[in-house]
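Table S2 (continued). Query chain:
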Amino acid sequence: MYVSCGHFDYNIYVLLLILIIDMCNTGLTCEWTDVTGSKLEPLITGDPEAVTVSTLNECKQKCVEESSFICAAVNYRHHDRRCELLEENDQTAQPQGNEPNWNYSLRPICAGECSDVSHPVYAVSWALQYSVPTIVR
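Corresponding output:
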């Protein structure tokens, strides 16, 4: 048994494409989830990358534009405009309640780019980029 990333099953990608388009059309997964008065403490990746921005929306945009890792969430502190880009979301990072100066936001699958994802060429390239390796026996 070995793992192969070179074997592509056309039917899987068609189903993935349909799922992506459906998620974006429903609008359920293309909105950031914002939590006020709390921040995420990464448990696996350690200290998050921090930048200074003007607004929470700018912090989210930095997350979407990040190219050195896949940004899954942000912590944002309003009074000093500290934006932390996290590789972890609330599935692996620990939410820290009672942090009144902080907000955290979870990046959606579509990351606010539904108009781009629903374009067939973009969606297929996205599906290939994030393909899951298959196990071959």
